[in-house]
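Dock adenosine-5'-diphosphate; give full complex structure.
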Amino acid sequence: MLNKISTKLATSFFIVVFIMESFFMIYLHRDTINTRVEDEYSRLLANGANHRYVLTENYSDTTIKHILLMEMNAQQDVIITNKTGDIIGSSNRTNNLLEIYQSLRNDLDIKEDKILVSDWRNSPYIVSAHPYKINENQFGYVVMFHSTRLINEMVDEMNMHYIISGITGFIVLFIVYAILSKVLTRPLIRMKEATEKLSEGDFKVTLPELGKDELGELSFSIQKLANDLEHLKNERNEFLASIAHELSTPLTYLIGYSKVAMRKGLNDKDREHYLEIIGEESERMKDLVKNLLDLARMGETSFTISKEYFLAPPFIKNVCKLVLPSFEMKKINLNFVCDENFEIYADPIRLEQVLLNLLDNALKYSNKSSEVTIIANRKDEKTVISVIDTGIGIPSDEIGFIFEKLYRVEKSRSRAYGGSGIGLAVVKELVEAHGGIIEVESKLGIGSTFKITI
Ligand code: ADP
């Protein structure tokens, strides 16, 4: 359920944003309201103080009238009282205001300006009181009333704004979720489907290019894996087809010649001849199967090379001794050149296999009375062994392919010279397993040189 990734991300994102947004909103909300209310308190106190000052300086009915007149507006009202709290002037005579005043009357015993009612949420007015004093007998209070309707309206409006921005936040989060799901989840789902296809053996997978980020790299790797697997599958099929073909040719001969050899009335000489052919073909098949086994083993990781130091001249002499009878039979000279006595660092069994293969080829692809030379020497701490023949050579456009499995120059050659096209593939694998290289130079009709450096 890859879908969950975007949900998880969106949920985490949502929680973080939600906490942050709530924190800021609550903070802003409280701060704005507090500032606004504080403003109202200060203004109310300032107005009241102003009236008190005017009244103290110039106490008269006219002054009282003026003060009342000044506060006859919708938001603010004033009540002026005498020392016992009786009203001597009011800008508003509604019962509501008077009732509130009556309920506050007992709180009036104050020495300086004071907010009497500050509960703007529940009370219709915030109220301040300002004591004035003309002389010892003549004093009283200016009581200011400020309607809380506007503040409450402002708070309601602000709440509305916050609700709207909250909803907008949700919508934005949803859009982020949708985008995340498109940008992140979809490609992941496609990759998951692709890997499932791969595990089912279907390597024909096409993933879109996603750019250079981690997702893009993952997608690229899966695509590359799919392409490689497809390539390997094709190669394996081709290889199997070639092997089947390789095995079926000698088998056809074997069946054909064995039928002929079984014929009644055949003289002993002919039968011997056919049995000889059967023997030769069986040998070829044995070689082929042996080489295939080597090749298969090389593909395994368990295939290891155990290197050791050994002297070059006796080792190569011994290899030459092994092949000499076949060379003599074909009347081909085998020369061995090794000027210095040095040590080779390699796996002797594998190196012998390499040289036997190269010498076998040199013999196979040389005509009677030609020469094969094996030269061994040291160069830059490495061993260089060359097998040089003056045989039929390899066409220049085919040189590049001779190390491929089952590759043979001109199929017609194989009948004339034997061979299955595996020898050089095995040689190359073995040399490379030693960390070495193999090079070839060849001219058609002049000869070939195979040089290994390990
Ligand atoms: P094969 O078993 O057919 O010899 P190899 O892998 O050993 O297979 O060689 C591949 C092909 O390279 C051969 O079919 C042959 O045509 C060519 N080749 C290899 N060695 C020589 C050589 N010394 N001279 C000419 N051709 C060669």
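Observed: Residues 2-154 form a domain with the Beta-Lactamase fold (CATH 3.30.450.20).
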